[in-house]
Every structure is written in structure tokens, then in C-alpha cells.
């Protein structure tokens, strides 16, 4: 069993538990539960920062477009954005599909949860500031422009499933060598590895904390691989990251969720 932090829906605090990532079994107070049977909420509470174009393939896909106006050059520093609190949902919760959108882009990514205040840390010390790791789905409405903040495409309600837990840092030998897979309705639609990051995690933390502080509980999304798959209403999305966990959610028409809420 590996140590994790989990959060139940309706509870304010995060609690510690044991997990077998191979069979998705949670051990809590001496009892064992199937993670699918637990009402799990997102186990993070701080600001969530995403990073654009941090996979080699994602940058290569743009081709010569990165050399055109307005920037005329590939990014020389991490390109950050925020997934605000309204986007965050937990394991098993529905992902809302807006009425005017045929499908959503599934952004499978590793979430790095910060364990202590990080300001101007070195690459050599960067991982000592990490509390643990989680699975994140950086959902987005498909769009092509990278030159303006994609707030309406990336910051809608429910566009950031997180979970099912935060696994302790020391349970992951090398976070820069983790396989990431996306299944939609049981079919493998994407596979990549954090070994393909342009900025490995220690470098990413060092470069970001050189100009801004990451606080306890903040989560850094290391990047979304190229060719992100699309999911439509009714599709079941499963993201697996080796040694971290499995995050599952289903896409549901937004109007159906609003109808249930009334």
C-alpha cells in the first residue's frame, strides 16, 4: 500500500489513506474499498497552473507557426495559465458539455502538488518542494489561437477533473518517466510519456519559481501531449498515469446537469 491523500465530497479536510494503484483499492481505518465505490472529491485546494507547449510533440505540431507574428519565436520560458476553482471536480463527477460544442478536448496531464512554499528554488532541490502527484484532465473546448488567453475555452465549470488522490512524492521514483494513457469508452485513444517533456519537472519548477512563488497546495500541470482526443456527450473518459492512479469521468450535456440541479 502506498500513502495517499484523499478527499470525500461534502468534507472540508483531506485525509490520509493507503492505496494499491494496481487494483484501485483504498485502505482506510483498517478497511478496504474499491475506489469506484467511494464519493471522491478533488484532493487539491490551491491554485492550479497549466503549462502550454511543454511536450515536444505539441510544439512540433505547430511547425513554423511559432516563428510567425506576434511572437516570431518558440517560447523561451514556461507559458502559464490558470484553471480557476470553478473548473475543479473530482473522480466520477460529470464533465459538462456546452450546448453549442460538439465535443471536448481531453487534456491528460500529470499534476505536481506543492508541499512547501517555493521561491527561486534550484533544479537540484526542486523535487523536495513536491508533496505528491495526481492525475488531471485539463479539459478544453477545441481552439487554435495560442496568442490570447483561452478563458472561455479552458475555464468553464467542471473543466478540470482531478484525482482520485494525491500519491506521496517518494512513491514515484522518476516523475519524468511516467506513461500517460487516455481511453474513451474503453478504447485507447492516446499514449505518451512525461519523458517527452521539453522542460522536465525539476526544471519547470525552478524556472517558474524564479519569477513567482508556488504555495503549499498549489498544483502544477506539466503539460498536455499532442493530438489530444475528443469526447462527446455520453463518452466515458479514463486517464491512466503509471504509478499515480486512474481518473474516470463521463461527459454529460450541460443542460442535463442544470436540469438536475433545479
UniProtKB/TrEMBL annotation:
The Fumarylacetoacetase-like C-terminal domain covers which part of the protein?
47-252
Please name the GO terms that the record assigns under molecular function: 5-carboxymethyl-2-hydroxymuconate delta-isomerase activity; 5-oxopent-3-ene-1,2,5-tricarboxylate decarboxylase activity; metal ion binding
Q: Which domain of life is it from?
A: Bacteria
Keywords assigned by UniProt, alphabetized: Isomerase, Metal-binding
Alphabetical list of SUPFAM superfamilies matching this protein: FAH (SSF56529)
Q: Which InterPro entries match?
A: Fumarylacetoacetase-like_C (IPR011234), Fumarylacetoacetase_C_sf (IPR036663), HPA_isomer/decarb_N (IPR012686)
- Name the record gives this protein: 2-hydroxyhepta-2,4-diene-1,7-dioate isomerase
**Organism of derivation:** Collibacillus ludicampi
Amino acid at each position: 500500500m502506498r500513502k495517499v491523500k484523499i478527499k470525500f465530497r461534502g468534507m472540508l479536510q483531506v485525509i490520509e489513506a493507503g492505496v494499491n494503484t494496481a487494483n484501485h483499492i483504498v485502505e482506510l481505518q483498517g478497511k478496504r474499498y474499491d475506489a469506484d465505490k467511494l464519493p471522491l472529491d478533488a484532493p487539491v485546494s490551491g491554485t492550479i497552473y497549466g503549462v502550454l507547449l511543454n511536450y515536444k510533440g505539441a510544439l512540433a505540431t505547430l511547425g513554423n507557426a511559432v516563428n510567425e507574428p506576434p511572437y516570431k519565436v518558440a517560447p523561451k520560458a514556461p507559458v502559464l495559465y490558470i484553471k480557476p476553482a470553478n473548473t475543479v471536480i473530482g473522480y466520477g463527477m460529470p464533465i459538462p458539455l456546452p450546448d453549442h460544442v460538439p465535443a471536448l478536448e481531453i487534456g491528460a496531464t500529470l499534476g505536481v502538488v506543492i508541499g512547501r512554499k517555493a521561491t527561486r528554488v534550484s533544479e537540484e532541490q526542486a523535487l523536495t518542494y513536491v508533496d505528491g502527484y495526481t492525475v488531471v484532465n485539463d479539459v478544453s473546448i477545441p481552439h487554435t489561437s495560442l496568442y490570447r488567453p483561452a478563458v472561455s475555452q479552458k475555464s468553464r465549470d467542471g473543466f478540470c477533473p482531478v484525482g482520485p488522490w494525491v500519491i506521496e512524492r517518494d512513491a514515484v521514483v522518476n516523475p519524468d518517466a511516467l506513461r500517460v494513457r487516455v481511453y474513451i469508452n474503453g478504447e485507447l485513444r492516446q499514449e505518451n510519456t512525461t519523458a517527452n517533456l521539453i522542460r522536465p519537472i525539476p526544471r519547470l519548477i525552478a524556472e517558474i519559481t524564479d519569477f513567482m512563488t508556488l504555495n503549499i497546495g498549489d498544483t502544477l500541470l506539466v503539460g498536455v501531449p499532442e493530438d489530444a482526443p475528443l469526447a462527446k456527450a455520453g463518452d466515458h473518459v479514463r486517464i491512466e498515469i503509471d504509478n499515480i492512479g486512474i481518473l474516470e469521468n463521463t461527459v454529460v450535456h450541460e443542460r442535463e446537469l442544470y436540469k438536475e440541479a433545479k
